[in-house]
Amino acid sequence: MTKNIKEAVKQTYTAAVKNGSGCGCGPSCCSPEQSASFLDENYKNVEGYQEIADYGLGCGLPTEIADIRKGNIVLDLGSGAGNDVFIARNQVGESGKVIGVDFTEAMVEKANENKSKLGFHNVEFILGDIEELPVASKSVDVVISNCVMNLVPDKNIAYQEVYRVLKSGGHFSISDVVLNSDLPKGILEAAEMYAGCVSGALEKNEYLKVIKKAGFQDLQIRKEHEINLPDSLLLQFISNAELEEYRKKNSAIISITINAKKP
Q: Among 24, 144, 236, 237, whose Cα sits 20 to 30 Å from the Cα of 170?
């Protein structure tokens, strides 16, 4: 099952490269209503933003509250075409470095293509799995990630890896999707919705427990907002009766941005 999930995710994000727009976190290619964006903020006013690297796949702006400083070494998990990496590069300056890890070959190729076009030298894009990061232990000052941890089947291992690569006193700023109640079975079983960061979501308190279990301290939810998915999208995976029950429960899919520190 894990292998199938990862393959579905890889196919979805490869399609995003070919289409030049998002099919994952963000507007869904599965929906005729392209207004189902997970992001309630505007990237275009952020310093360092490069439009060629923005496929609309995020659900937050982790770089804005990550306390990235000049000279830092920053790691972006699920770096895609390089959107958050290039913003972080602006923050670390010429004396710092930003590493992007993504397990979709097409995304890494596109990111390196964008890097060459922009002429940046202190960024690096690596093909790798978040459950087994190709990054040395205790080598990174700040970890960022934007609506990607949901795509990792084993979130315990993922956050253990974040802990491993961070230096003592290092921290992360991660935007992700959580739930306030159970999702209907049809959504949970849909690979397309998994690649859209919905059915891979954990219940909010369970998600926070994973982070604490990994050893992190000073956990703070810095931003939080509800994501409203259109009925037309949900009805591709659940029945009208299930949709009605889902709406009655006031179930919510929530985008959160969390900061936490490695002691």
A: 24
Structural domain boundaries of the chain?
2-261
Nearest to 62 by CA among 93, 85, 90: 85
CATH number belonging to the domain at 2-261, selected among 3.40.50.150, 3.60.21.10, 3.20.20.140, 3.40.50.1110: 3.40.50.150
Q: Pick from 132, 63, 78, 152: which is nearest to 108 by CA?
A: 78
Tell me the H-state helices in the chain: 2-19, 83-92, 105-118, 155-165, 185-188, 191-195, 204-213, 231-234, 240-248
- Expressed in angstroms, the distance from the first to the final Cα of the chain is 35
Mean pLDDT in order along the chain per 10 residues (263 residues):
70 72 47 48 83 84 96 97 97 98 95 97 97 98 94 94 98 94 79 70 95 98 88 87 85 90 98
